[in-house]
Specification:
The chain is α/β, with parallel strands linked by helices. The protein has 3 domains: about 150 residues, Nitrogenase molybdenum iron protein domain (Rossmann fold, 3-Layer(aba) Sandwich), CATH 3.40.50; about 200 residues, Rossmann fold, CATH 3.40.50.1980; about 40 residues, Single alpha-helices involved in coiled-coils or other helix-helix interfaces (Up-down Bundle). Helix content is about 45%, strand content about 15%. The chain has 17 helices and 14 strands. It has a 6-stranded parallel sheet, sandwiched between helices. Strands 6-5-4-7-8 form a 5-stranded parallel sheet, sandwiched between helices. Helix 7 links the parallel strand 5 and strand 6. Helix 2 packs across helix 9 and helix 5 packs across helix 7. The termini are far apart.
Length: about 425
């Protein structure tokens, strides 16, 4: 990690730049994959599985037998951990339910709103360098609470044509109805367009590599809803002299190990903390199985020393991190200053790993600065809110004239007439 001292605000844009991979041909390549899936359906999915995953699939859908075998392969300790995490995630997302009251806006005019689960949703679960079975919980649990009628899941198979047992166990635990051994951009295309085997869904959720993200973006342009734009994982830590450098280093490494294009940022008002954390980082890195990949992520990561924590908070809000850790003595107070972040972790004993797995909050979050305008996945992500209104005769008489005047001013005479005809009928009936 390169160290910067008291950078001028003119440098902030450069310091906040995320790492990018060469994507000059990305969208054309992904567009071709989507078109092939559109034209050839299941045949295209089998072709791409053989090309990208190295497996020749007969059945794209996971069978009941495979689910039973997977359950036997998952250790009791992991099953128990998943169940604990499920309980916490369920409790937090259950608390997000909203109950709307009917409102009489004018005597005789009643308005209300109702939450309805999106009927058909698709979940994408990465399975490459790390099988993210925790993401199954983060997506399937709120889908279940929201009342989504059809929940399907796609994940890339290994070279033997199988999915990781923990992914299958978590999916069954959370009520996913159908699971498909399809990964990459072709899985997103299958869920967005539908094939002979994979049903078309109305909204697609889940993280993925640049090909998955590009596929979601292209399908969104054609009417398929997606959870959010998402890219490589990122973490920003603000640490003062009360921070434990070993803790901070472990947090930085926990996100850097996601991939070579991940990014971690460390901010402090103490050069001593930055130096000690960097030393701890190097020691801990040597012990990691994914050290080589993690080290590459650290190349484009940064440590920045500011004159005070207020400046550090300002930079954090400018950067808009996916994850933000406040490792400071007055962490709660600084949390009140957060304006841009996907998820915030307060204090010295709240590692980001808690949110990734079991605290209850959702780990599917906006990256690449999208936290300025997007929220992370929540119960609301799986719900559409429908408004209702009912006018009694006395209500129409109350506001009918208002609508007539406004419609006339907009030169929309048919709008006016829809009210006028009814008002005339009410007037005649009252005689």
């Amino acid at each position: 990690m390169k160290l910067y001292k008291n950078p001028d605000k003119k440098q902030w844009a450069t310091l906040a730049t995320r790492p990018t991979l060469d994507n000059s041909n990305l969208y054309s390549t992904v567009g071709q994959i989507i078109e092939q899936v559109r034209l050839e359906g299941d045949a295209a999915l089998r072709y791409f599985s053989q090309k990208f995953d190295g497996c020749k699939l007969t059945d794209l859908e996971v069978s009941e037998k495979e689910l039973q075998e997977a359950e036997e392969l998952v250790s009791d300790a992991l099953k128990e951990a998943l169940q604990v995490a499920k309980a916490n995630i369920t409790r937090f997302h259950e608390s997000q339910k909203e109950f709307f009251e009917e409102v009489e806006t004018t005597p005789g005019i009643h308005c209300w709103r109702k939450s309805v689960g999106i009927e058909r949703v698709g979940l994408y679960i990465p399975g490459g360098t790390a099988p993210l079975f925790s993401t199954v919980l983060m997506l399937a649990i709120p889908a279940q609470i929201a009342g989504c009628q059809e929940v399907i899941l796609c994940s890339p198979p290994n070279s033997e044509g199988a999915l990781h047992p923990a992914i299958l166990y978590a999916a069954r635990l959370c009520g996913v109805q159908r699971i498909f051994k399809v990964g990459g951009a072709q899985a997103i295309a299958a869920m967005g367009l539908g094939t002979e085997t994979v049903p078309m869904v109305y909204k697609i959720f889940g993280p993925g590599n640049q090909y998955v993200t590009a596929a979601k973006t292209l399908l969104a342009q054609n009417g398929t809803a997606i959870d959010m734009p998402a890219g490589p994982s990122e973490l920003l830590v603000i640490a003062d002299e009360s921070a434990n450098p070993e803790f901070v280093a472990s947090d930085l490494l926990s996100q850097a190990e996601h991939g070579v294009d991940s990014q971690v940022i460390l901010l402090s008002d103490s050069e001593k903390v930055l130096t000690q954390t960097k030393e701890a980082l190097e020691r801990q890195l040597e012990q990691l199985p994914r050290a080589e990949m993690t080290a590459k992520a650290l190349i484009h990561s940064r440590a920045i020393c500011f004159e005070n924590l207020e400046q550090a908070m300002s930079f954090s809000n400018y950067y808009a991190p996916e994850h933000l850790i406040l490792a400071t003595a007055q962490a709660r107070a600084y949390a009140e200053q957060v304006r841009q972040a996907g998820s915030v972790f307060i204090g010295h004993y709240t590692p980001e790993s808690l949110g990734d797995y079991a605290s209850g909050t959702n780990h599917t979050l906006p990256t690449n600065g999208f936290a300025r305008a997007y929220s992370g996945v929540s119960l609301d992500s799986f719900i559409k809110k429908i408004t209702f209104q009912e006018a009694k005769p006395e209500g129409l008489l109350q506001i009918g004239k208002t609508v007539e005047i406004m419609a006339t001013a907009e030169c929309l005479d048919a709008h006016k007439n829809a009210v006028t005809i009814r008002l005339n009928t009410l007037t005649q009936n009252s005689k």
